[in-house]
Amino acid sequence: RKEVEQDPGPFNVPEGATVAFNCTYSNSASQSFFWYRQDCRKEPKLLMSVYSSGNEDGRFTAQLNRASQYISLLIRDSKLSDSATYLCVSTTSGTYKYIFGTGTRLKVLA
Amino acid sequence: NAGVTQTPKFQVLKTGQSMTLQCAQDMNHEYMSWYRQDPGMGLRLIHYSVGAGITDQGEVPNGYNVSRSTTEDFPLRLLSAAPSQTSVYFCASSYEGTRGYTFGSGTRLTVV
């Protein structure tokens, strides 16, 4: 079993829709979590950190559920430019070894 | 600031050849990592470093060596290239490991 698992998608949604992705992690010692965005043939770029209390950045909301060991990303009012692959990441305290999920592909349709 | 710079951007090697992928950052980041990305496998950690002179293995270290003689540079050496090492390689750096890594633009390596 992979340490970080994501539904590969693709998620095809119309513009303006709300879409949510989940990501599960198996290492209960995982401390820090992130969402990255990766466009086709480009490098991953940090989208947001995920805090225990949840955090919001504009149309994006990230949540952490430690009891069930998953993190989520909610995108509201989807834009065509949101089309990308979204990668979740976990890391354990003191190691800074980032473990990536395989990514969830999002296509926002006009 | 240039951020994280990787060279070369593209490379074709013959089986058995060796080469070094270069990675440099100008952000004074202590933490640096190398990943490879393959279809369906996602990003997998090869080696990482938490400072000059300190390196450690990631998930898939076999066939690769690293060293960290300066804060700025973190080269990745392929000892004897194999077709299984055909991949996209990303270098990344972070000021402090819990704040997220910044990635270079990648090196696309093909081993024939």
Describe the protein in words.
The complex is a heterodimer of chains A (110) and B (112). With 110 residues, chain A is mainly β. In chain A, 0% of the residues lie in helices and 55% in strands. In chain A, strands 2, 4, 5, 9, 10 and 11 form a six-stranded mixed β-sheet that branches. The mean pLDDT of chain A is 93. In chain B, strands 2, 4, 5, 6, 9, 10 and 11 form a seven-stranded mixed β-sheet that branches. The mean pLDDT of chain B is 94. Chain B contains no helices and eleven strands. Chain B is globular and about 35 Å long. The chains are: A mainly beta (110), B mainly beta (112). The A-B interface holds A 31-32, 34, 42-46, 49, 87, 91, 95-103 and B 31, 33, 35, 40-45, 48, 50, 56, 58-59, 90, 92, 94, 97-106.
Average pLDDT of chain A, rounded to a whole number, is 93
How large a portion of the residues of chain B is in β-strands, by DSSP E? over 45%
Strand content of chain A: over 45%
Helix content of chain B: under 10%
Keywords for this structure?
heterodimer; A: 110 residues; mainly beta; 11 strands; 55% strand; B: mainly beta; 4-stranded antiparallel beta sheet; 52% strand; globular
